[in-house]
Amino acid sequence: MSKVLVCVAWPYANGTIHLGHMAGSILPPDIFSRYNRLLGNEVMMVGGSDQHGTPITVSAEKEGVTPEEIANRYHEINKKAIEDMGIEYSLFTKTHTDNHFETVQDVFLTLMKNGYLTTHENDQYYCPQCAKFLPDRYVEGVCPECGAQKVRGDQCDACGKTFETGDLKDAYCVHCHSSPEIRPTEHYFLRLGALNDELLKYLEGKEWWRPNVRSFTTNWLKDGLHDRAITRDMEWGVPIPMDGWDSKVIYVWFDAVIGYLSASKEYSKIIGKPDYWKEYWMDPEVRHYYFLGKDNIPFHSIIWPSILMGYGGLTLPYDIPANEYLMYKGGKFSKSRGGAIDMPTVLSKYDSDVVRFYLSIVMPDTHDSEFSWEDFQTKINTELVGNLGNYCHRCLSFTKKNFGSVPESDGVKDEVAQEIDRAFKEYSEYMQSCDFKKAIQGHHGPVPLRKQVLRFHEALGSREDGQGRMRKGPLRQPVRREGTRHHDVALHAQGSREDLRLHGSVRTRGRRLRRNQRQTRARYRAQGARSGIL
Length: 534
Fold this sequence. Notes:
The chain is of the alpha+beta class. The chain contains 17 helices and 19 strands. A hairpin with a 4-residue loop joins strand 4 and strand 5.
């Protein structure tokens, strides 16, 4: 048994989490942690709501309420949606807590003591009309790298390029749409350049990292690292533990990644073992996995390791299996820009197992994937119900009809045992390397072997019920709606939040199955049961 730390990217608490969040960074770590628990490993899975930064203040200003009210509202909504999806965090917490403040301030002061923080003036956007400095999301413009429009002041969602003040073309204030000035203001900076060589050494040999993670990280390091501001001119965030800095706060990109450490400490206190977190963070044998979307790669592969190196004595990330984007109608899911299908709406219509299955097989692991309601319908009907569900039902029906219970085994044929061992080994390798889509693609079991088993069953007289319908089996039924059969999972949708209705889709398949079964039974009666599978 070994310990595994599973760290889940913190969704902003400025809106409801959507399918993109779930497929990209929330469901994958749950799959991984469940797998490790089944192996007998001791898993701590932590994350929570990112409650600071400009996304929260922007939403609060739109509604005319405080940032804390927005942050707590969406924390509760998202926490319930995550629980309804069956996601099993050790702790799902939030960044606006005393425990998090203490941890962030401790990291801040330790980095300063170790010589990795410095202060100097830097240029920031300033809006004369609004009479204030403009943090990242209060500025939009054109990306100088790829030309994308309405790009925010900190990073381009289209190409992943991060910006310094003045990089944006045609910048404007999101409040009044006037052109901002660039003025100097004093801030604390993380001395990333002082850690460049250590980061390059850390990156060596990380061949198991996904290509997108390695390329993002390598490109950053090739360009050379520069000091990066970790404070902002605003009031919402973690207070700076220094006199004379009351009008500024520690900024979100710095404090959010420290949440993995603060959440581990909070969980340890909750279970009555205040030092339990040290077993995960101070033991180099413990592997740390970080699950996130590709837009967060540099913050976890460069900035967070830099913070940990500067602090000293804490375990660095072992793997960062970052996913690409789940797209919808050709665009990225986005809370702040619209176009998102939120999880509470989806879960009000569909069983969580159905959603988990579908997101697992379309997971955007190595490239962007497209979500559509039509594809959802097809994959649930054919792969979950028609293949996996039908196979389980027919095997169990055959067993009950002929034996009444699961019979004792008198041994397994070598070819069957070998095929099972091969399939399980392949599955385990995929799971351990966080290739969940490839792992679930084998969820039906070895297809040729399965077909032979079913044909042998049918040769012995196994059949469906009198009307060719699948009877209700032990598999949790995906969807149950008034006026539909429990196994029918077709749907109709015209948008992201419409009433999704279910329609029948199995009757034709049932007739085809009965015809094929009659032909198969006749063939096996003539040939004898010579398959040798059982």
